[in-house]
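Action item from last week, closing it out:
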Amino acid sequence: MKLIILASIIGACAAAVLPGYVAPQYRPYYQARPRAALERNAAILRSVSDVNEQGYHFAYDTENGIQAEETGVEANGIQARGGYSYVGDDGQVYSVSYTADVNGFQPQGAHLPTPPPIPEAIAKALQENARDEANGIFDDGSYRAGKYDPGVFGVSAYTTPRYIVPYRQRY
């Protein structure tokens, strides 16, 4: 019994000496960022918020250079238009303007990547599909036997072979 009490006292003393452990995934991100000190306690310089029957509008500015503004209306869902800007860790101001409606969120900014151009073969195929749809030809991707020419191997002429029992030899 004395041994258990002595071991628990030594364990408690050893645990009190160890520094507190913080798992890597729980360490705050802002410790590694140079602008973290400015962002931690940034004051709001301007804040505007207006909601009425026609829609809404909000805007704010903070002392660390963050600015945002958005206006939206309810028409076939929410249609919004706005933008935001902030100062990056490299000291450069990044600005994004956007629209959000039935076509989704569409951001625009000089620093955002742009998609590569559409390959020529795909552009031709899209034009051909649009031309076919304008002429009333729609291809939904489903298979129907009468939709295609029979070619070399006619679908209607094909019959599955009968199962033939293998010949058995008696031993």
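Closing note: The chain is about 20% helix and 30% strand.
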